[in-house]
């Protein structure tokens, strides 16, 4: 994440339920009701902030979104994934690798914020 921030010139934060390593502390902070911990009641998401003149801010935000999408949106044509699907189909004795386009039980949410100065 630090590399992405340096490369894109933005600030990124992972927020929401599950964003803290210490789950007990997260639950304690969520129940505290403090405004700065309100995000812990929301789904896991990424906050992207840009502080720059308008043209530059839009450019940085666009670049950051393109880079972060690589981690949030699965690439169905990824070679490693295709190989794993082939191995799975062999193990299961069926041809599941030809379908390969369903993700079960996953939802993604992206939140972005641009502050233009």
From TrEMBL:
Q: Where is this region: Disordered?
A: 1-29, 91-117
Do you know which Gene3D superfamilies this protein is assigned to?
Answer: K Homology domain, type 1
Domain of life of the organism encoding this protein: Eukaryota
- Known SUPFAM superfamilies for this protein? Eukaryotic type KH-domain (KH-domain type I) (SSF54791)
Compositional bias per record (Basic and acidic residues), positions renumbered to this chain = 19-29
> Can you say what this protein is called?
KH domain-containing, RNA-binding, signal transduction-associated protein 2
Biological source species: Characodon lateralis
């Amino acid at each position: 994440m630090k590399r992405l921030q340096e490369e894109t010139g933005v600030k990124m934060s992972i927020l929401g339920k599950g964003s803290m390593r210490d789950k007990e502390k997260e639950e304690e902070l969520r129940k505290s009701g403090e405004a700065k911990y309100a995000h812990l009641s929301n789904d896991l998401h990424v906050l992207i902030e840009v502080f720059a003149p308008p043209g530059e801010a839009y450019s940085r935000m666009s670049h950051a979104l393109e880079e972060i999408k690589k981690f949030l949106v699965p690439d169905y044509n990824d070679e490693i994934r295709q190989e794993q699907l082939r191995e799975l189909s062999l193990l299961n004795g069926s041809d599941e690798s030809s379908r390969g386009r369903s993700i079960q039980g996953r939802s993604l949410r992206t939140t972005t914020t641009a502050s233009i100065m």
